[in-house]
Design brief:
31% of the residues lie in helices and 22% in strands. With 511 residues, the chain is α/β, with parallel strands linked by helices.
Length: 511
């Protein structure tokens, strides 16, 4: 096992070294145009083999788009519908993270603050306490350096009594509650969580269902964390030992009423589902209240929340309020790694909105008199397309509607994705971006795929119903690094496009 680990590490080191050399060469030699596909004999053999893999695939009737470009000299080794539009699924995340890492910097951090309208008085009192979020994706109710640290700071500052309410303020971001083009039946699950400026615990809860000890009794339903934020109605029944499992879960999308129903067999094994919550800012305020009380700070009022419209009506301005305490998130580089390695939708959406908020002045048509209603999600999408354009990547027909790829309205080309991978390699964010990608056979969403090529393929996966994708880098046997994008749409029926996608990526690594 030690010997194998040394081999994998050595291959990965070679990949990094070759990538750095290829990046320098790519800076000096701009990539060839999409119409100029290499006619070198070895490259033509590669093209014929990719054509064969697609033609013989059980997903041959699906729409395929593949683009492969050398990082060393910019030649296009292969293009099949490289300029055709496809739904990228989670390959949208490489667009979001690349632009954000370059424009905001890998060391960017989010700040979450506790504000009051005046300093703590001599008795340790304040009126209302405002928990103000700026889009931190990793604010956590249990982690020591997160929400508990905020409560500790407030106690150390002398706070002993909140006469009014705890207000969770999510007004930093303006825009739609959900991503444009998200499907309604995705919204109750963890991957459809609301991207709030004041997010907490990734805006999800775990719901575990297990049979009761007595047949006929309601099944056991447990919510974690158990903070009574979700209102549970349990209409389940524990059935006979051999009864089939037929359990349903639904959360009211405009609230936090959760209903579980159906029959659970007495011998059935417990299972868990991860659900999103509504109004994360209210839950964050609730959890802060609990944390303050646990430290001996009295809170008379109730948790509340407000969005950008409400904050404007109430004329709350953080620039004029008193910041009593704050915590900072981990870096954007760390967030980008979680976004791409784990394909975390919430992280991607918060990164896109942060990009739109922090770099709004650079967005096309950024005159506030013309764009009063444009949300930070829309600004982020505009800035992303601007960044692509500045890298020489055509954006005329691209459609960017969210940062995560959950939207069915996103449209990109395989060439734009591959060219993006070349472009980010020319920036100071190159190493951080590359390290954010899943490694075949090693970690992230590729940990169980292409294990014989462990360490030789670094790529972002993507999956929606009828849409599958993989875009990243492959280290060939000759030591050349290739940037590639494989997009497959309309793969219906019993087909398994992932096998075909992996076969193409393996071929590149074996080239």
């Amino acid at each position: 096992m030690v010997f194998c680990a040394i081999i994998v590490s050595a291959v990965f080191f070679v990949f990094h070294s070759r990538f750095a050399s290829a990046r320098n060469a790519a800076i000096e030699d701009p990539p060839a145009s999409a119409s100029t596909v290499s006619q070198a004999p070895a490259d033509l053999d590669l093209s014929r083999e990719i054509d064969r893999i697609i033609a013989e695939s059980d997903a041959a009737k699906a729409r395929w788009g593949v683009f492969v470009v050398s990082m060393s000299d910019g030649r296009v080794l292969y293009s099949h519908d490289g300029e055709t539009l496809f739904t990228p699924a989670s390959n949208m995340k490489i667009f979001t993270t690349a632009a954000a890492l370059d424009l905001l910097g890998a060391d960017y951090r989010w700040r979450t603050s506790a504000y009051a309208d005046a300093q703590i008085d001599g008795r340790g009192d304040v009126n209302n306490l405002v928990l103000y979020g700026r889009g931190a994706p990793d604010l956590d109710s249990k982690e020591k350096g997160s929400l508990p640290a905020l409560a500790d700071q407030l106690y150390q500052r002398g706070l002993r009594h909140v006469r009014g309410n705890i207000i969770g303020d999510a007004s930093y971001f303006r825009g739609d509650l959900y991503g444009s083009g998200w499907q309604w039946n995705d919204l109750q699950w963890y991957f459809g969580a609301e991207p709030s400026a004041l997010s907490i615990d990734e805006n999800t809860v775990e719901v575990t269902i297990a049979p009761a000890t007595k047949v006929g009794s309601a099944a056991d339903v447990m919510i974690t964390p158990n903070d009574n934020y979700l209102r549970l109605t349990n209409n389940t029944k524990t059935g006979d030992r051999d009864a089939p499992t037929s359990v349903g879960i639904i959360r009211d999308l405009s609230g936090n009423d959760l209903r579980v129903w159906g029959e659970f067999p007495a011998r059935g094994r417990a299972f868990s589902a991860f659900l999103s919550i509504h109004d994360p800012a209210l839950r964050a305020a609730t959890l802060l209240k609990h944390a303050l009380i646990a430290r001996g700070i009295q809170v008379e009022g109730e948790p509340q929340s407000r969005d950008a419209r409400q904050a404007e009506n109430e004329k709350f301005d953080p620039q004029k309020a008193i910041e009593l305490a704050y915590v900072e998130s981990k870096t954007l580089g760390n967030a980008g790694r979680k976004t791409n390695k784990e394909s975390n939708n919430l992280y991607a959406e918060l990164i896109l909105r942060t990009l739109g908020k922090e770099r709004a002045a650079y967005a096309p048509d950024s005159d506030p008199r013309k764009n009063r209603t444009r949300g930070d999600d829309q600004s982020g999408a505009a800035i992303l397309k601007m960044w692509l354009h500045r890298q020489g990547i055509s954006t005329n027909s691209l459609a960017v509607h969210d940062g995560s790829g959950l939207s069915r309205l996103n449209l990109v080309t395989p060439e734009s994705a591959a060219r993006l991978l070349v472009a980010i390699s020319k920036t100071g964010a190159s190493a951080v971006f590359r390290d954010s990608l899943p490694i075949a056979g090693r970690d992230g969403t590729l940990s169980g795929r292409m294990t014989p090529e462990a360490g030789r393929v670094l790529a972002k996966t993507g999956t929606l119903t009828y849409a599958h994708s993989l875009s990243g880098y492959a280290l060939t046997k000759s030591g050349e690094v290739l940037a590639f994008s494989i997009l497959c749409n309309d793969a219906a029926g019993p087909s398994h496009p992932t096998r075909t996608i992996d076969a193409i990526a393996k071929l590149l690594a074996a080239y």
